[in-house]
Amino acid sequence: MNKTIARLLQAPSIIFLALWMIVPLSMTLYFSTIRYHLLYPEREGFLGLGNYEFFWTDAAFWPAMLNTLILVGSVLVISVVLGLAIAILVDKPFKGRGICRILLISPFFIMPTVNALVWKNMLMNPIYGLFAVVATAFGAEPLDWLAHLPLLSIIMIVSWQWTPFALLIFMTSLQSQDTEQKEAATLDGAGFWSQFYHLTLPHLARPIAVVILIQMIFHLSIFAEIYVTTGGGPGFDSTNLAFLIFSQALLQFDVGVASAGGVIAIILANIVAFFLMRFVGKSLAV
Amino acid sequence: MNDLQVRKIKSHLVVFSAWTAAFIFFFPIFWMVLTSFKTELQAIATPPLLVFEPTLENYTLINDRTDYFKYAFNSVITSFGGTLLAMLIAIPSAYAMAFSPGRYTKDILLWMLSTKMLPAVGVLLPIYLIAQQFGLLDTRVLLIIIYALINLPIVMMILFTYFKEIPKEILEASRMDGCTTFNEIVQVVIPLAWGGIASTALLSIVLLWNEAFWSIVLTSSDAGTLVALVASFSSPEGLFWAKVSAVSTLACAPIVVLGWLCQKQLVAGLTFGAVK
């Protein structure tokens, strides 16, 4: 195959992806500097950083930033710690382990909207939900989870979906761990914790780092779960950055301000992506 | 108690904990499936019914009640269409990169993967306005194009690693026989990497089937997917849990099964090949 044909074959994918990235990105950058409101088309003109100022002086901005960080941080800790613990539990063979694993990873394949709705209706509903029923059975006051603890509820919902992801990755990489090394360590009298600390954790260092980075990128823009359950409320209690931008754009129709928010979201994601790409780059053999 | 007994108890405890975790994680799914066989009244009964006379009504009447088939059709068309389009673009590209790599091949692949990390909300408005301009809002074509583009980087990366495993000698031999590039792809590369191509396609379908941002934002009644249909049940009026559960169960079942089948590809695809 000569070089020209090779370039021609590669061209479509490169061109399409370049367009997909450059066109919307430059439009977002451009919109973020002008007055652009879909309901008031007569308002126009260059604003400079005016939209940014408006976006981050908005009463919802800091709550949304804080919620985004809390959401990302808590889901990360829960899913990595639980994922790791369960992966170790199911690492040694036992009867029915295959089925056990399948049950464990299933939540990850459930549609985000179904996931959110099942939790909202059947588990967290203050009257008919299972949590309320259990609470009443123990004589406690049933809790309206989504109204009183909206962020915690969303953390639970997202963790339920993403712990299986972390688990799946850890299970897969535990399979490639050297069993002879572990057996030798056992013979030398190394206990569980010292094996975990000196053998398993170093083996999983890379997968853990990758899981953290990937989840950060996905969780920075959690949307469907909030859209279906709380709609960002009550107030801004469960609004994250992605949902704030969505509501500025398609509920309040302020293109300029929403674009400024979009640029902020892109910058945040890029900080994470920078580190992730270094990991991916090392493992990509060309 | 001697050492052996302690170890035995410990291993029983491990197995017990594993099954407890599995029970907790699978429970919401089990509950959803169970609810789909109840009547609406049974579904909200307190205390919740574990034993009841199952009804198939939620399934047999599903289309009358929700227009289920239209949304299911949209989901199938967009996830398969997006996958097909991505494969059509990616196979020749990945082939060229794998068998005639240049100085920048690795950089190009990494750049492609980095486009995956652009948050969708950041480019929501331009895409929305462009789609509006071309009259593409709420059309399957728009979703297919977007789906192809958001999955193209992952598909490229996985196909590239599969193609790299094909021995170069086989291609050289076919070239000696006067094979053109097109024939080489269709008659040599695709058959040899068939397993890899199929599992890449499966992964892509799984991801697109569950895609929940673009489908909610860009579609409504015409091109709505199952994800969007389920999202539309979030409004507070009326508690149709049994009905929604049946829709949800049908919407998730095929993908959960596919997911079980392509775990390995999923791990490679979701971690951009950094974990194998």
Please give a structural write-up:
- The complex is a heterodimer of chains A (286) and B (276).
- Chain A has a domain at 55-115 and 150-283: MetI-like fold.
- Helices cover 73% and strands 0% of the residues of chain A.
- Chain A has helices at residues 3-31, 50-57, 61-89, 97-105, 112-123, 130-137, 145-148, 150-174, 179-187, 192-220, 224-229, 241-251, 255-283.
- In chain A, helix 8 (150-174) crosses helix 10, helix 10 (192-220) packs antiparallel against helix 13 and helix 12 crosses helix 13 (255-283).
- Chain A starts with a helix and ends with a helix.
- The two termini of chain B are 42 Å apart.
- Chain B has helices spanning 3-35, 40-43, 57-60, 62-66, 68-99, 105-115, 124-133, 140-164, 168-176, 181-192, 194-209, 214-218, 226-232, 241-261, 263-270.
- Chain B folds into two domains: 3-59, no CATH class; 65-270, Orthogonal Bundle (MetI-like fold).
- In chain B, 73% of the residues lie in helices and 0% in strands.
- Chain B has 276 residues and is mostly helical.
Strand content of chain A: under 5%
Look at the structure and name the CATH superfamily of one domain in chain A.
MetI-like
Alpha carbon gyration radius of chain B = 24 Å
**How much helix is in the residues of chain A?**
over 70%
- Give the largest interface: A-B, 107 and 100 residues
End-to-end distance of chain B: 42 Å
**Strands of chain A, count:** 0
What oligomeric state is this? heterodimer
Which secondary-structure class do the elements of chain A indicate?
mainly alpha
Low-pLDDT runs of chain B: none
Helical residue percent of chain B? Answer: over 70%
Largest sheet of chain A: none
Q: Compute the number of helices of chain A.
A: 13
Topology:
The complex is a heterodimer of chains A (286) and B (276).
Chain A: H1 3-31, H2 50-57, H3 61-89, H4 97-105, H5 112-123, H6 130-137, H7 145-148, H8 150-174, H9 179-187, H10 192-220, H11 224-229, H12 241-251, H13 255-283
Chain B: H1 3-35, H2 40-43, H3 57-60, H4 62-66, H5 68-99, H6 105-115, H7 124-133, H8 140-164, H9 168-176, H10 181-192, H11 194-209, H12 214-218, H13 226-232, H14 241-261, H15 263-270
Helix pairs in contact in B: 1-14, 5-8, 5-11, 5-13, 6-8, 8-11, 8-15, 9-10, 11-14
